[in-house]
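REQUEST ID: PR-0412
SUBMITTED BY: lab tech R.K.
PRIORITY: routine
TASK: structure prediction, single protein chain
INPUT:
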Amino acid sequence: MADRALRGARLGTQSFEDERGIEMAPRQQVEYACADGHTFVVTMSDEAEVPFEWEDPRTGQVGRRLEGEEPEKKDVKHVRTHWDMLLERRSVDELEEILTERLKLLRAGEIGPVHLHRIKATRAKKTA
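STATUS: complete
OUTPUT:
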């Protein structure tokens, strides 16, 4: 019985509603221009915040808005490296002193990876 009710209708491809009485959302046309002079138009909602740059869907180039002002550039923060943070805590002279102390301890076998000390001990036995 259900088969007869749907006969002749293409499900999923056809809507039986018409557009009478439907009020579309307000829209605006925004025009963009690429560096090579090519222009294109993008339809956006009136309520949308319109970006200054937009990628052209056909060419993939970035276009700039023809109307409106270019946004102010934000200040770029300097990226602090590990070295910068280390220099905030210690001077170069202090760092050189610490490095010298640590190298002495490492060479004496008091600190560092265990496998390095085993190699050193094996070499000492071979030479003796």
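NOTES: The chain has a mean pLDDT of 84.
REVIEWED BY: pending
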